[in-house]
Structure formats: structure tokens, C-alpha cells
Amino acid sequence: MANRNSLIRGVNLRSHENNLAHRTREIDRERLIVRRGQPFSITLQCSDSLSPKHHLELALHLGKRDEVVIKVQKELGAGDKWWFNQQGAQDEILLTLHSPADAIIGRYNLAVLVTSPDGHILEKTDKIGFHLLFNPWCKDDAVYLPDERLLQEYVMNEDGVIYMGAWDSINNLPWNYGQFEDYVMDICFEVLDNSNNALKNSKMDIENRSDPVYVGRIITAMVNSNGDRGVLAGRWEEPYSGGVAPYRWTGSVPILQQWSKAGARAVKYGQCWVFAGVACTVLRCLGIPTRLITNFSSAHDSDGNLSIDFVMNEKLETSGRDSSWNFHCWVESWMRRDDLPKGNDGWQVLDPTPQELSDGEFCCGPCPVTAIKEGNLGVKYDSPFVFTEVNADIIYWMVRPDGQRQKVRVDQSGVGRNISTKSVYSDQREDVTLHYKYPEGSAKEREVYEKAGRRVTEPTGENAEPGQLQLSIKHAKPVFGTDFDVIVEVKNEGSTDASAQLTILAMAVTYNSFHRGECRRQTTSVTVPAHKIHKEVVRLRYDDYVRCVSEHHLIRVKAFLDAPGENGPIMTMSNIQLSMPELLVEVPGKAVLQEQVTAYISFTNPLPVPLKGGVFTVEGAGLLSASEIHINGDISPGQKVSVKLSFSPVRVGVRKLLVDFDSDRLKDVKGVATVVVRKRYMIPGFF
Hints:
The chain is of the alpha+beta class.
């Protein structure tokens, strides 16, 4: 508020009305937060001394040191300029500001200058602050998305589902994006301010923040901490000492808060779904429509030859820099690509997990999904890498004791399966595989491969012309903590009996294929009569796999058949995802804004051993910030533990309460409850 002698005595930013019109009330009701390409109005309270002879001039300042200054034109100018108009009414002036649809996003300071008819500055009112975001509702904005249902999901929804597990055994993890939680927007701009580009040349960086391609690229670099002051440090195997294990997180907000409070020091630890979850939060908060994608059987090609080469020794131990991940998460953001030829607009892959350098930074994308589908690998950014993630051939080589390499198996359809995202209409899974590639085995798919410059490999193993012997693995869907059988079938299609040596190897692996150790190995000589099937049963006991199983509860079984007279050895493999026990979360009764509600959480130990150090982590956007509930003492086999949690919801709407349970022997058990928070209704005449 200015002093009583000022020409302008006060400013009303009309935050309530503006934020409602600009769909930012969820972020803040007090501060002014608006979207570009859409007008907003503020009111100036004036003294009687301000006359029609006086002129108003407006200037906008961006950056901590006012690196960028923009003069606001009076009345409509060219479409790419800020302009304003004014209406006077007695002691008030209504100023309506119009931002261009490609304005810089960020925190603005508005300065209002009162000048005399001869141009002298009589008074300056500054420190009028507001935030400007991308506007996917504005048809001229590069992030414009014309479907309101998609906008409600990909910008406004704070609750997500992340798909994990294996392509044939898909699990879902509820995730709290929380992009409208208190001060998350401020932290998102803090993330941009700490990028290498911003620290090197702040003015140039701010000027580039009008472009969602630039902003998306900066976010993917900054969500991981490799080579910059980024948010999350990655770690792919235990121990997770000095930090939080990746599977413990249930949402992005505690991660962003911790990073900010620590003065831009990396939070420990993240893996792909955590990186993607945080990136989705930041991009949605800034106004870029974004969704989280899971690619099952995702290839990581380190040498750029568009195939994944695994070299095995006679013990079936695999080496090589290439890898195939059980699943891998990234995000897609919706934007126009004015920097590329026509046909590249729409969904763009952005991958914040640090894997390979891109123009000297650990980031990936934005890469148009259409370019991947059509095999246009000359399109920036990082299209060959993304293409391989969903399309590579996997080639298995055997190195014999004499050093000779023998091709054992080529799998042309095992990579890029069941590519998934949360549906717009529910918490169900939507399959988007056909957005990334034509149907496996179709003529169009082969055409795209040749266009991409991918070498055509000779199929062997599963995709080859069948030899006399066929090999397959069968198993039930086992629960972690139980003993279970794996059945390897050797089928003889020939007209004569066949003898072979069969090796079965069960090993614990992480979701991104790090080997954790052998659980079981068995080698037997088998003779299979003509037109018959031999079944070899291997029982995997809890005691066998608990010693080395990772927190992803994943067992990889390889079956290797060496038969004289066949073209070569035969190999097949199967990833067995051990399912998790149920964690029950109930919120009975009605939930009312700012009134206490009670949640009941219960869990039964399914293991044959006691659990120590049990802890529940609970959070929910609009419900409560992340908090822990520790269990006293051990949880015996078969014992049920129940805890009660009370909280007062702070925002109305359909909310998700997310719970994670961890202990020494059982980790990553998740539960979720939906809570509908209503306003408190006042009955006239009652207090």
C-alpha cells in the first residue's frame, strides 16, 4: 500500500477472480497466478490528484536481477506483444493486461509508472508480483490441447497410477503428483533457476522459457542430479544408506520439498518411476499436459547399433553394456514442435532417468512419438535411443571355451511390450503401444525398421524355423513368501527320440536386469521320445530366493538345451514377478473440509518369519503431508497389525490416501483409499 499522498494509493490483484478464471485456484488463492494468452485484470486505487492528463506506463521485470524488462504497450499491438487497456471509475482504475500466447513463463514484477503530459515520471509503483504459466486452454499456446477431459487428467489431476512389474504380470503403484500442494510451484521455478543454463547465462535462460521444448529439456536434465544441481540422485541397488530407498516414495512432493529445503542438494534416492513421477509433477504444475508412460521389456542400447547384444558364458552368466529392463518409465508431454518439420506435433517423450548424454547433459527428449512410429531417426532429440527402447532386437551369444561366439537366439518381438499409461476415464490401464510402433510382424513394421537403418537379423531360437526340439517355461503367479514350482517343457517335434543336456538357472534380478545372485541351478540329461513332451519341475523355496531377491521381487529363469544334431543350442527365459500381499486402507464415514477424519490401516505378515522395523508411510494431496507411523516390536508370521490415523483434509474433491509399508524382510507393500472431501455446509439460523 502506498502512502496517503501518492497518486496510486493501493493495488488489488483480484487474485480470487483471476485465479478462478485461469484455473490456478488449486495452486493458491491469495497470490496472483495466471496463464499466458489469456487476459487478467487488476485494480489501482487512486487519489483525487490523479487526473485524465496523467498517463500510465507499465513495465514487466523478470529475473532476480531484472535481467529481462518488457515494456507493456498501451492498446492492442502486434499479437506477440504484452499490451494493456484501462477503464477509470471515480477513484479506481481497472487495468486489463493481455499476455501473448508465447510469453515467458515465470515470476513477474509489474511496475506502474505515472507520467506527466510532457513525459516526466511522477511516481512509480513496483513490487507488484505475479506468476505466469503455460496455457494449454489457449489455442495459440504451443501446449494447446483441445480436449477438456484430457486437460483435467494431464494438467489438473494430482493423483496418478504408475505401472510396474513385467509385461505379462503388470502391477500398479498409486502416485501422488501433488502439483498444486503448497509452494510446489515455487519449487518448480527453483528447479529451473538451478539449471546449468540458468547459472551460466540467466538472461538467455529466462528468454528461452517461452518455449516448452526448452523447458521440457531443462526439466529432464534437472530431475536427475547427474552433472548439475538436480533433484534426485539415482541408485539402482542396495544399500540405500544415507537416503530413502526408491520403492519407499509414494509421491513427488516430499522429494521436491526436501531438495528445496536442503538448498538444491540432491535427494537420495530415485529410480526410473521416481524420476518420471517428479518430472510429471513439475511439468503439470507449469501447465504442460503430461502423462507418465511405462514401457515393458525396455531396451537400453549403449552402442547405438539398434540391437541389444547379450554375451553368455557356459555358466549362462551374461555380460555386455547393453541391457533390457523389465520396465522403464518416462513421461510424454503434449506440445507443438515449431522447431521441426510438419507431422511432429503432439506427444513428446521426455525421459529424466540419467542413462546416456544428450548434447552433453544427462537428459532425453523431447522426442516426437510419431517420429518413433515412422522410424524418422534424424528428428531431435534422442530419437535413435528412444526408438531402440521400444523396437530393438535382442541377440543372445554364447562364447565357447575356445573363444568362438555362437548366436543362440534372436528375439525380434520381445522389446517394447504393453506400453502403458493411466486412462483418462478411470484408474485403469490404457495401452498405447500402437502409438509407438506398427503391429509386430506387420509389413509396415518391417518397412519402418529398414527406414530407421536397423540391421535385419536372422531369427533363431523362438522366432526361427522350428527344429526337432522346442523349449518353454511355465509357472503360476506366485506370492512372495511362498514356495512355488517352475515347469520347463522340452517338446520333441521329430520322428526319432532326442537326447540333450538341460540346464535350468533361477536368479534374482532387479527390474533393470542387475543380477543379484543365483537362487537355484539344475543340470540334467534328458531323453525325449518322438512326438512327446518331457517336463522338468524345479521347486523354488522361500529359503532359496529370499537370500538374494531384490526389492523388486523378480526371479529370472533361463532354460538352456544343448542337443547334438540340432542347429545350435536352444534357450528361453521367463521373468517371474512375485506378487505382494494386500495392505488394507479404509476411511469410513464422510470427509468434510477442515474436519477430522480417521483412516484405518491393516496388514498381515504373510512370511514364515517375523518382520522387524515395520513402518507405514502415509500421504495424500489435499489430505495430509507425508508422515510415518512406526510399529513397535516384531510382527510374527500370520500376525495382523492395525493402525489408526487422524487428519483434517485441506482441499475439497476426490482425493487419494496412499500408504506404503516397509520392514527388514518385506518392502514396497502399497495400499490406497479414495476419499471424497466435501465442503462444510452452513444451515441458516444455526451456528
